[in-house]
């Protein structure tokens, strides 16, 4: 623990700071990370698997920038427009991974939550990126040390766990594995601050800080619903009005994606079968099997289809 806090007292010289970043994955999280990096003066390359997906990512960044700009420059439409255009000009979307990492300082991986897919990507990145490039994963639940195993740069590897929606959520968990060098960790912490986030330091433990507490709470809410103790609506209202949460557990699960929720809890159960907090939840598994994935599929614990709204 002493080691974790000691590192954050040092500061990196301006010449040594992270300026160019590559975000792999332009989905919910990757597009948010790219957006915030661009608005905080970084040069960003955003990679996804197809031009179509990248177009959608840019559209969602535009929409989010418009919301931020409208608030930030409430009485100055021209300044809001300039803010949006400046930020977009700092983001280069591409499907070419090799080109995207050729002179980057930091790669942030935000692709699907699957160890094999992440390993395949990091093997490729390790070959293509220059020696000085730091790698980070935005994984919600997979061990950073295990993701890093396929690279030859564990000393330049860490976790940067952002929260959804990235432009609004102030927290960034910065995770180190035993091999992460002090120099790397220091740079990651400073990058987080440069992104305008409040950083917290954490070891490579399941769920880090937030998800280790949040996931059991959300699963317990689902078990409560499964037992028929209360309705989803009332459980959500209770936690919002009685505990001060901005979203109830089911609104949040729908927002994150029920497939992601299920992947996390089932994965932890496999790794820690003795822990009762990580027991799979049949209701969640059934909803995912039925294609009810939350907001992204139009239905989850609540219905988001236009006709029923
Ligand atoms: C099994 C369990 C699984 C757990 C999974 C873990 C996943 C992961 O690893 C960790 C997480 O992320 S955990 C998840 C962690 N996340 C949480 O826990 C989220 C909890 N929810 C919240 O904090 C709030 O509900 C929100 C901030 C999302 C929306 O706020 P609201 O009041 O309900 O609704 P509003 O009135 O619409 O918007 C309010 C303001 O926000 C602005 N805005 C919104 N989205 C924006 C965007 N994309 N861009 C730009 N701006 C955006 C908007 O413009 C507005 O500004 P104004 O100044 O008021 O005009
Ligand atoms: N959804 C959340 O609330 C949340 C919050 C924090 C962290 N995370 C983590 O962030 C990561 C991404 O989650 P998400 O919700 O943004 O997922 P998402 O499904 O919205 O986006 C993933 C994107 O990665 C792309 N992709 C997949 N394989 C790729 C590859 N090999 N190369 C380039 N792009 C590839 C997909 O096309 C997709 O656009 C996951 O590890 C997840 O656990 C998610």
TrEMBL record:
Please name the GO terms that the record assigns under molecular function.
(3S)-3-hydroxyacyl-CoA dehydrogenase (NAD+) activity; NAD+ binding
Reaction(s) catalysed by this chain, per the record, are: (3S)-hydroxyhexadecanoyl-CoA + NAD(+) = 3-oxohexadecanoyl-CoA + NADH + H(+); (3S)-3-hydroxybutanoyl-CoA + NAD(+) = acetoacetyl-CoA + NADH + H(+); (3S)-hydroxydecanoyl-CoA + NAD(+) = 3-oxodecanoyl-CoA + NADH + H(+); a (3S)-3-hydroxyacyl-CoA + NAD(+) = a 3-oxoacyl-CoA + NADH + H(+)
Q: Name one Pfam family in it.
A: 3HCDH_N
Q: Which residues bind CoA?
A: 64, 71, 140
Where would one find the signal peptide in this protein? none
Q: Which SUPFAM superfamilies match?
A: 6-phosphogluconate dehydrogenase C-terminal domain-like, NAD(P)-binding Rossmann-fold domains
Q: Which InterPro entries does the record match to this protein?
A: 3-OHacyl-CoA_DH, 3-OHacyl-CoA_DH_CS, 3-OHacyl-CoA_DH_NAD-bd, 3HC_DH_C, 6-PGluconate_DH-like_C_sf, 6PGD_dom2, Mito_3-hydroxyacyl-CoA_DH, NAD(P)-bd_dom_sf
Binding of NAD(+) occurs at 25-30, 48, 113, 118, 140, 164, 296
Entry's Gene Ontology cellular component terms: mitochondrial matrix
Record-listed E.C. numbers: 1.1.1.35
Domain 3-hydroxyacyl-CoA dehydrogenase NAD binding: start-end pairs:
20-205
Pathway it acts in?
A: Lipid metabolism; fatty acid beta-oxidation
Q: Which GO terms describe its biological process?
A: cell differentiation; fatty acid beta-oxidation; spermatogenesis
What is annotated about its quaternary structure and interactions?
Answer: Homodimer. Interacts with GLUD1; this interaction inhibits the activation of glutamate dehydrogenase 1 (GLUD1).
Protein purpose: Mitochondrial fatty acid beta-oxidation enzyme that catalyzes the third step of the beta-oxidation cycle for medium and short-chain 3-hydroxy fatty acyl-CoAs (C4 to C10). Plays a role in the control of insulin secretion by inhibiting the activation of glutamate dehydrogenase 1 (GLUD1), an enzyme that has an important role in regulating amino acid-induced insulin secretion. Plays a role in the maintenance of normal spermatogenesis through the reduction of fatty acid accumulation in the testes.
Protein name, per record? Hydroxyacyl-coenzyme A dehydrogenase, mitochondrial
The organism encoding this protein is: Darwinula stevensoni
């Amino acid at each position: 623990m002493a080691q974790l806090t000691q590192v954050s007292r040092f500061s990196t010289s301006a010449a040594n700071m992270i300026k160019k970043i590559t975000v792999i994955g332009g989905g919910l999280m990757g597009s948010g990370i790219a957006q915030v990096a661009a608005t905080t003066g970084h040069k960003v390359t955003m990679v996804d698997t197809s031009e179509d997906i990248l177009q959608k990512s840019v559209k969602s960044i535009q929409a989010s920038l418009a919301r931020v700009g409208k608030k930030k420059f409430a009485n100055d439409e021209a300044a809001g427009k300039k803010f949006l255009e400046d930020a977009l000009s700092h983001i280069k979307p591409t499907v070419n991974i090799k080109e995207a990492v050729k002179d980057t300082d930091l790669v942030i991986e935000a692709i699907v939550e699957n160890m094999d897919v992440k390993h395949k990507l990091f093997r490729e990145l390790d070959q293509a990126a220059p020696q000085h490039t730091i790698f980070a994963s935005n994984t919600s639940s997979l061990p950073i040390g295990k993701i890093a195993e396929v690279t030859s740069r564990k000393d330049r590897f860490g976790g940067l766990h952002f929260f959804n929606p990235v432009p609004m959520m102030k927290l960034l968990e910065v995770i180190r594995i035993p091999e992460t060098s002090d120099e790397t960790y220091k740079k990651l912490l400073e990058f987080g601050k440069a992104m305008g986030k409040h950083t917290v330091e954490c070891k490579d433990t399941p769920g880090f800080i937030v998800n280790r507490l949040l996931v059991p709470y959300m699963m317990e809410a689902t078990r409560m619903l499964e037992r028929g103790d209360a309705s989803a609506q009332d459980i959500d209202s209770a936690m919002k009005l009685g505990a001060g949460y901005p979203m109830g557990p089911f609104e949040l699960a729908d927002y994150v994606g029920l497939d992601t929720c299920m992947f996390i809890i089932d994965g932890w159960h496999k790794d820690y079968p003795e822990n009762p907090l990580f027991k799979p939840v049949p209701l969640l598994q059934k909803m995912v099997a039925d294609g009810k994935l939350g907001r992204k599929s139009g239905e989850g614990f609540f219905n988001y289809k236009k006709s029923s709204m």
